[in-house]
Amino acid sequence: MKKLLSIMLVLTMALTLLAGCGGSGSSSMPAASSGSTAGSSSAPAEQTLKVAAIETAYGSDMWKEVCAAFEAANPGVTVELTTDKKLEDVIGPSMKAGDYPDVIHLATGREAALTETFIKDNGILDITDVLDMTVPGEDVKVKDKIAGGFTDSSLTNPYGDGKTYLAPMFYSPCGLFYNAGLLEEKGWEVPATWDEMWELGDKAKAEGISLFTYPTTGYFDAFFYALMYTAGGPEFFDKATRYEEGIWDTEEAKTCFDIVAKLAEYTEPTTPANANDDNFTKNQQLVLDNKAIFMPNGTWIVGEMAEAPRADGFKWGFTALPAVKEGGDRYSYTWFEQAWIPAAAEHQDLAKQFIAYLYSDEAAAIFAKAGAIQPIVGLAETLEGDNKMFYSIYDNGAKAALGSFAATEAIEGLDTRSVWFDPVNSLVTGDKTEQDWIDGVKAASDQLRAALK
């Protein structure tokens, strides 16, 4: 009897263990993969993913198509897409009420500085783990698809803590755009140094043409970053963007200030009046009408001005910033947009899956049709026409400049654009002197250094 009871007890325990294993497996086992490129086997069912994306010159249709593909591959998932040219005004009120998008595509450097505000307030989710995720529908990790350097920048790792908070999206070599047809017609060479730039400015002025314009002062971020690299290389850039004490009293800093101040003297006079988010295309039109030669911009300019009138013989030209001295390094800043997840987002896991999908071949092809190019390995090799010229700038002697000012604790009423770039309008109009600008930079830099995270 004792032997029989022992056998029954062993059998009962075995069945219990088997049942427990079976229950655990069925509750945690992912569903079968849909097999679609956009899909993921672990997509939660019956969820609404809120995606908010800035509408730029690339348009909003590409986002609609990407979101539709993600929905189709993830049954039960609905993507609620919000796009607008002034996205901050649309999503800002709801976020103040506690209703956050799950994914936001909005770059730094905009006038409203919403992304910078989230960075300063520690309101962006750490997405380092997304880099180790496998791209949905593919057999490669996200980090292996993103081109080198893009996830090592302060634009993606704003706290310098080795973690990634913002995903690099559409990138654009930034530099000086111009009408190559005008220079060919006049027999003028593209300046290789700033001394040559001033010589060209004098020739153009004699013919009633301004040397320079800019869409808004916000475009001076990419310009000034590249200028810092040109004046002092990566070491100076790193010290300056981390507000090192005394850095703005150096010879390299003086070179940067002097060049911008002199460039203001050669700027088309009507530029400041239109240097805002409503009228900036009027400044860009100055180049198309041969009223100004150079303007800082990014590759999106071609699509943005595609329907605009232009001078006979117009064709886009693009160059890196001139060197400070003959034979010196020339730099083109690589500006890129960012996608991120608010720390208060409701569906964070699904949001991470969506960001991983954005680097799939399927999504990249959809974006590329609209001219939005991501920093995906090998993608630039497929480009043609103007884009091939723009994205080959780093193959033609220019060096890439990356990074931005380091994030700090929030200081009410103080941001880098208002201190470093907005004063350019006043330099052009004569309302501020170069020294006024320098004094403001030095004072702000001291405050920001003390507030470094």
TrEMBL record:
<dbReference type="InterPro" id="IPR050490">
    <property type="entry name" value="Bact_solute-bd_prot1"/>
</dbReference>
<feature type="signal peptide">
    <location>
        <begin position="1"/>
        <end position="19"/>
    </location>
</feature>
<keyword id="KW-0732">Signal</keyword>
<protein>
    <submittedName>
        <fullName>Carbohydrate ABC transporter substrate-binding protein</fullName>
    </submittedName>
</protein>
<dbReference type="InterPro" id="IPR006059">
    <property type="entry name" value="SBP"/>
</dbReference>
<dbReference type="Pfam" id="PF01547">
    <property type="entry name" value="SBP_bac_1"/>
</dbReference>
<dbReference type="InterPro" id="IPR022387">
    <property type="entry name" value="Bind_CPR0540"/>
</dbReference>
